[in-house]
Amino acid sequence: MTNHNTSPYSHLLLLAAVLALVSVASAFGPTSRLDLQKIMREERNYMQKKVIDISHKYVPDLPAYDSKSGLGNFIKLKTSIKLGDLYNFSVFKLTTHSGTHVDAPGHFNETLFELGYDVVSLHLQTLNGPVLVVDTPRNKNITAEVMRSLNIPRGVKRVLFRTSNTDRRLMYKKEFDSSYSAFTSDGAEYLAQNTDIKLVGVDYLSVAISPKDELLKVHQHLLNSKDIIPVEGLNLNDAVPGVYTIHCLPLRLVHGDGSPTRCILFQ
Ligand SMILES: [Zn+2]
């Protein structure tokens, strides 16, 4: 039996419900004209920007820290179409500090490592945003004196240091070269105490010069702060000094003391 016992307001309520449903459907349904305009505007913005890839390609001859033989054959097909398998499927093995990569606070500090300061703990806000690319004086390491001379203003949070390593094309030489240019302990201490820099990019495999005590101290000055992220092994060939937007996205490796990362600059 049909229930005819409806109130005079029931039609109005029904109409309101239908209108509510329609508005929900349009919010989640096909893209509105406004959304489309926004997308097209953003698309035009992005097309005008130049993208510079500042990551190195992973190739067998890419140098590895303290090694004569580079990365070697780090990738291998496990199944292969050529050999009759249905698909190509590879396995690769790299250290967490291979090629262009980031260091996590736990890299040189066991307490921080055990507290979970791995690459997952790194802030995406630090890894992405406005960045300054600077040329450092050639044939000098990044000392406190060099840092002072660069005169990087307070408020600058991300800096990529382009050194003689780029001119010398060290990242293209398979054999590790310990004569690379990088931070000395007083340079790192200066950065941590007198600047607002939280993302420190360098153009060879370590942010620190190679003598062991310096290697340790530089990393401690930067990493023990827990909010400074070194990005090492950057490809700065095409990044002339200036202001860009950087995007670095390391892998979310739980317990990773470092991770390979793709880094790009938008101009
Ligand atoms: Zn590293």
UniProtKB/TrEMBL annotation:
Keyword Signal in record: yes
Subcellular location: Secreted, Extracellular space, Extracellular matrix
Pfam families in the record: Cyclase
Signal sequence extent: 1-27
InterPro entries: KFase/CYL, KFase_sf
PANTHER family: CYCLASE-LIKE PROTEIN 2, KYNURENINE FORMAMIDASE-LIKE ISOFORM X1
Name this polypeptide is given: Cyclase family protein
Source species of the chain: Solanum commersonii
